[in-house]
Write a structure and sequence with these properties.
The structure holds 3 protein chains of 3 kinds. In chain A, 83% of the residues lie in helices and 0% in strands. Chain A is mainly α. By secondary structure, chain B is α+β, with helices and mostly antiparallel strands. Chain B is built from 15 helices and 23 strands. In chain B, helix 3 crosses helix 10 and helix 12 runs parallel beside helix 14. Chain C is α+β, with helices and mostly antiparallel strands. Classes of the chains: A mainly alpha, B alpha+beta, C alpha+beta. Chains B and C meet through helix 1, helix 3, helix 4, strand 13 and helix 9 of B and helix 1, helix 2 and helix 3 of C.
């Protein structure tokens, strides 16, 4: 008997942490180049352009699009199974559990907008390359978008960091309450650090 | 090989005994309809805490099965059927191994074998235990095995079904029962080859006791009213250490004393006149100390608090002290119950002495059965606490789980043998089944529409008060006569009950009213047989009254109790129901006591054989 | 004499499985040590609401009143717990009682938890003994393992953890923490472990351990303080290993 549910759920966990985690880190890394101003960010973007187009497209499809779609669609199925109740049972882990699902819902909408506008429309259809100048005028021109992007990043970072904790539980790596608490603290620290980095590089568009 | 006809046995009650019988029947190839008030996993067996006795002799004490046998008979003040007891103690070690294989997490020694502890009335370590929740663990093991048989198709469970009465065929043989679904209130007749009652004790007759709210003895009383004989109902064990409460008295296991707990009160030292802790059990019974049997300990506490005026008053309490024992040892051996004391009293027994008082706990008596657990009604069997077997006039601690499990191993196979013996006459006809059902429906409808001024729960409370007042630790004939009178009044008042719930969906009130009547009638059986037994034996202690009806005291001012009277009363009390006058009729029956000669029971000195 | 102190109860009632819930309020005389079951018993003795209406007594389930049978679980002031050990002194008044709606309500506070017992069948919660007859000495067990088993074996199937778990309910097929962790109990036993692969495979099926979302409410509300999350993590570990075996051993 083949346990479809089990393998899908475990794949969901793996894809989320490893593949989409990498994507998130890549985004934070590349975007944090904005701190160095236009030359730095554009330089980093140009580096990526060095990868041959077909290879890059394949990477985008197999490394981002497919995992993301799987994680999102199966994730919706998972989120629908929860009846969030932190109001009644206000324990920290339960809040994190609920937030994991709420951030997921937000991210689904956010990513449709983000990928749809920047990758598919701007870069894909109009053929405009993404650049420091483009992003700066986009964010400073519409501060609301900047805020939404910051929230989107925060959501993704929390979803990822909390995912580390649950990954360690789901895979039976952290068994006892002490190690689970330690890992949860560490990943929440990571969450705060990544959020701060995000705030700083997003802020840099406005001050420079 | 020709297919054997399928044998259907009805087991009523899903405690240790009922489940054990069920397993045995399934293994023998029979089918079981298992009826219970509640999911069987919630049966009252799980309230047993201390352990289960079996001669495992793993503590270098040269314990023997004979010693267990003798302790049980001696502890029961020579009123137990000795052949039955012998069978039980011989089977005990095998049962323990069976439970161990089934996964009961017994507490173990450092080398991984079963640990043993001391228990009351026994000098050797003989009690196997799983922390302080042995009953829970044993019950779960059997519950799991029965679930396995449920999956295999041997058992059909009827949980949340209340047994109402048995149905006899035209030859007077029990061939079925009427039961009611407690949620839908639907009443249905069920035919069977044999019916086994394993419905537990009648503790709720006393209202506040250590029994669960489901232990009302209603089923026993019901078959008693249908002609079953009750044996020794006057012998009710009063557990010396319970936490008194207004909703129930919660048990504080004898294991506390087995693990070194001491019972004391404050007193003024008779010589130095200083206030001191008086460890009165150790003082009164130097050979057994705090580990005297329960009837003895309860009487001692009663004497110290009620007659000597020591201890705490209003409410009456004495101290049970564990605070001198290292906390980690207590945690390992007694964890569960200490937590319970903390939960319900709000004080930590690891640090302060517990406040306890005796409470009704167990009924040695019950439906009369022979050694194969047949009642006097053919086709009806009884096993577990609801029968009268094994304990005589007083039960030793940790023998109840043993007798419950063991009786199941007897009644189960025996029911199959009977079912296949061809002596059961004809099965019930459709009409007989339907008539019995209609009768119960009519009775229930009548109860549902009762409109008098009395409240059933208040009446129950009064019943408990009366029973505690007259038929508890110390009894005397004037009180017992008065008790009978008051019980008749209560029974009359039952007719004036009014219910507020007239519906037919989960009508707990109406079902309770039906149970209450059964409880009152059983209370009369207890009282009447206590009244007629003019001696003191085990849990039944009767005060001597003089001609004016005053209590007689000796030169020290202590109450004088009637002595044990083997010539007249080394007999089983048999109570039958006189339906016309709604009165119990008491007679006495000889029983098997040829193996150990009766001797005086005295726990102040080491037991002599 | 001072006036008798009263305790106000706000009880969510429901006349049948498909009826509409409504609330009624009752006043019960205060006494020290009073718990929720004892208070409900007082209401049985005098089933009159705070505004003087005579009503049917509240229906609920209880047996042992010692926190071992698991019957009296209900939602008290929003939290799933045993009513018998809920002392009035430790509760905020007025005290709100409601049935645990994760389960089908039969009437008032009485619920149908048979799904939990069905789940125990699913995880094969038993040791496959040959029979109740004597076989030979039972195997020696590591006393530390036995202690862990003892802890898990305290589970009284009360359903607190299912009521608290956000992943248990009509929206999901999760069997819940209690039955899941019971599988580990039998996997620990020297004879029970022979069937460990069967139990682990059962846990991999739909509604099994995969549905656990690590909200960890279970361990917070367990009245028996069973370290449910620890054993869930252990089972996760075991299940993953079993999955590898399923793939690579055949």
């Amino acid at each position: 008997m083949f346990h479809t549910t089990f393998y899908l759920r475990r794949l969901h966990s793996l894809v989320g942490l490893l593949v989409l985690g990498m994507v998130l880190f890549e985004h934070i890394f590349t975007n944090s180049m904005a701190l160095g101003g236009a030359p730095a960010l554009n330089g980093a973007l140009a580096m990526m352009e060095l990868i041959p187009k077909p290879v890059f497209l394949m990477l985008e499809v197999c490394g981002i699009a497919v995992p993301l779609l799987f994680h999102a669609i199966y994730g919706i199925y998972i989120a629908l199974q929860a009846n969030n109740n932190p109001g009644r049972f206000g324990y920290i882990r339960n809040w994190q559990f609920a937030l994991q699902r709420w951030t997921a819902w937000f991210l689904v909408v956010f990513l449709v907008w983000h990928v749809g506008y920047l990758r598919l429309f701007t870069k894909g259809i109009t053929g405009t390359p993404i650049s420091y100048e483009l992003l700066q005028s986009y964010f400073t021109g519409h501060p609301l978008y900047a805020v939404l992007y910051i929230i989107g990043m925060f959501a993704a970072i929390f979803h990822f960091s909390n995912g580390i904790t649950t990954f360690c539980m789901t895979w039976g790596i952290a068994k006892g309450p002490r190690i689970q608490t330690v890992i949860n603290c560490l990943s929440m620290c990571l969450c705060v650090v990544l959020c701060l980095i995000t705030l700083v590089f997003m802020g840099s568009y406005f001050v420079m | 090989m020709a297919n054997k006809p399928e044998n259907k046995i009805i087991v009523v009650g899903g405690g240790l005994s009922g489940l054990m019988a069920t397993l045995k029947i399934c293994e023998g190839g029979g089918k079981v309809d298992l009826f219970s008030y509640c999911p069987v996993k919630r049966s009252h067996s799980l309230c047993a805490q201390g352990g289960i006795n079996a001669c495992m002799d793993t503590k270098g004490e040269h314990d023997s099965i004979y010693e267990h046998f003798d302790d049980t008979v001696y502890g029961g003040d020579f009123l137990a059927d000795q052949l039955a007891v012998k069978g039980m103690v011989e089977a005990a070690p095998k049962l323990i191994k069976m439970f161990d294989r089934m996964g009961v997490p017994f507490t173990r020694t450092s080398e991984g074998v079963l640990d043993l502890r001391n228990f009351g009335g026994q000098k050797n370590k003989r009690t196997c235990f799983a922390g302080s929740t042995t009953g829970q663990q044993l019950l779960y093991a059997l519950d799991e095995q029965v679930r396995r048989w449920e999956v295999k198709g041997g058992v059909k469970k009827y949980e949340f079904w209340e047994f109402i009465k048995i149905i006899k065929n035209k030859d007077g043989i029990c061939r079925g029962i009427v039961a009611q679904n407690m949620n839908s209130n639907e009443i249905v007749s069920f035919p069977a080859d044999v019916v086994i009652l394993a419905t537990g004790g009648p503790g709720q007759v006393y209202g506040r006791c250590t029994a669960s709210t489901i232990c009302n003895g209603s089923a026993v009383s019901s078959v008693y009213q249908q002609g079953a004989e009750i044996g020794n109902p006057e012998f009710l064990q009063i557990h010396p250490t319970a936490i008194p409460g207004t909703d129930k008295n919660r048990l504080m296991s004898e294991a506390c004393r087995g693990e070194g707990g001491r019972v004391w009160v404050y007193r003024e030292n008779p010589e130095t006149h200083e206030k001191e802790r008086w460890y009165f059990l150790e003082d009164m019974y130097p050979a057994y100390g705090n580990l005297v049997p329960r009837d003895v300990a309860s009487r001692a506490i009663y004497k110290v608090v009620v007659h000597m005026g020591l201890g705490m008053h209003n409410p009456n309490r004495v101290y049970l002290d564990l605070s001198h024992i290292p906390a980690d040892y207590l945690e390992r051996k007694l964890g569960g119950i200490l937590e319970m004391y903390d939960d319900f009293v709000g004080k930590d027994p690891r640090k302060v002495p517990m406040e306890i008082f005796p409470s009704i706990h167990y009924s040695m008596g019950g439906i009369w059965v022979d050694r194969e657990h047949h009642t006097n009604i053919p086709g009806l069997m009884a096993s577990g606490e609801c029968d009268y077997q094994y304990h005589g006039a007083n039960r030793l601690g940790a023998n109840s789980l043993l007798s419950a499990a063991y009786s199941g191993t007897i009644s189960g196979p025996e029911s199959l043998r009977l079912a296949r013996s061809g002596k059961l006459g004809e099965a019930l006809t459709k009409a007989e089944l339907e008539d019995a059902r209609q009768e119960c429906v009519a009775e229930f409808d009548k109860i549902r529409n009762m409109n008098g001024p009395e409240n059933a729960h208040k009446l129950h409370h009064e019943l408990g008060d009366i029973m505690y007042k007259y038929v508890s630790v110390e009894r005397e004939n004037i009180g017992l006569t008065q008790c009978m009178k008051e019980l008749h009044e209560i029974l009359k008042r039952w007719d004036n009950i009014g219910v507020t719930d007239h519906g037919t969906w989960a009508n707990q009130e109406a079902m309770f009213v039906r149970q209450l009547r059964n409880m009152i009638i059983y209370a009369m059986a207890i009282t009447k047989s206590a009244l007629l037994r003019d001696e003191s034996r085990g849990a039944h202690a009767k005060i001597v009254l003089d001609d004016k009806g005053e209590r007689v005291t000796d030169e020290k001012g202590d109450l004088v109790f009637m002595p044990r009277d083997d010539a007249r009363f080394m007999r089983t009390t048999i109570v039958t129901f006189d339906a016309e006058h709604e009165e119990p009729e008491v007679s006495y029956r000889e029983f098997e006591h040829s193996l150990i000669k009766p001797r005086l029971r005295n726990y102040a000195v080491a037991k002599k054989e | 004499m001072a006036e008798q102190k009263k305790v106000r109860f706000v009880i969510e009632r429901q006349d049948g499985p498909t009826e509409k819930p409504y609330t009624q309020e009752f006043d019960v005389d205060y006494r020290p040590g009073l718990n929720v079951v004892a208070a409900l018993m007082e209401i049985q003795k005098n089933p009159v609401t705070a505004d003087g209406k005579k009503v049917a007594p509240v229906v609920w389930e209880c047996n042992c009143l010692e926190k071992v049978c698991g019957a009296c679980m209900m939602v008290i002031n929003g939290k799933a717990r045993q009513a018998c050990c809920s002392l009035i002194d430790n509760l905020k008044q007025p005290i709100h009682l409601a049935p645990a709606r994760t389960f089908p309500v039969i009437r008032d506070l009485l619920i149908d938890r048979s799904v939990m017992f069905e789940s125990l069948k699913r995880i094969q919660g038993w040791v496959e003994v040959d029979g109740t007859w004597e076989v030979k000495d039972a195997p020696i067990q590591n006393p530390y393992t036995a202690q862990t088993a003892y802890e898990i074996s305290h589970c009284m199937t009360c359903g607190c953890c299912l009521e608290a778990c956000p992943n248990v309910g009509p929206q999901s097929d999760f069997i819940g923490p209690a039955p899941t962790v019971q599988a580990y109990l039998f996997n620990l036993h020297p004879l029970g472990k022979f069937d460990a692969p069967k139990r682990l495979n059962a846990l991999m099926e739909k509604g099994g351990i995969t549905s656990c979302g690590n909200s960890q409410n279970c361990v917070e509300v367990c009245p028996k303080n069973i370290k449910l999350t620890t054993y869930l993590a252990q089972l996760n570990r075991d299940v993953n290993k079993q999955a590898l075996r399923n793939i690579f051993d055949k």
